[in-house]
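Tutorial handout. Part one gives the primary structure; part two gives the three-dimensional structure as tokens.
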Amino acid sequence: MPASPNRNLRPPENDMGIWFLCGAPDELTGEDKPTKEFGRVKVFWGLGVPGRVSQGYWVGEYDYFEFEVRYGAKSELPTNFQGVSGGGLWQVPLLRTPDGRFAAKELILSGVAFYQSAIINNVRSIKCHGRHSIYKSAVDTLKYQTKSFLTQCWYNTSSTSNRFSWRIPHDLMR
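Part two.
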């Protein structure tokens, strides 16, 4: 997450640091041996795939990033990124430590994947909702959900004690 709540007002340039797309591609999902507790065991492999943001752009009030994954002759990357939708696109600005090494300055959730292109010239583009869109949506959703939640709950206190409780309608517990 950004180092401060105002980080997205002044995000780093797209060419600063390194970028990773994190998720669990369906083609890497498998099954393991059953256990005595579970007859069927699914195995999910998560990845942090390095790449680059080739472009950032706006359509109306929403921002997007195109994250490029390059395939080489000995590439071990998944051939298909289905299952990564909803995965995070992270920007990691770097700094140089006093001993000359590079270190992550911060980890910035900058996008959420939702679409993959075909592989063209050994490059696949993953389209992501951008940081402004996801943070605005998150804030708007939290504002709405909190107000909605609180208007559907009621506060109950006992006048004979310092105890209180929230009564939450059963349909909100889902």
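Part three, for discussion. Helices lie at 131-152. The mean pLDDT is 82.
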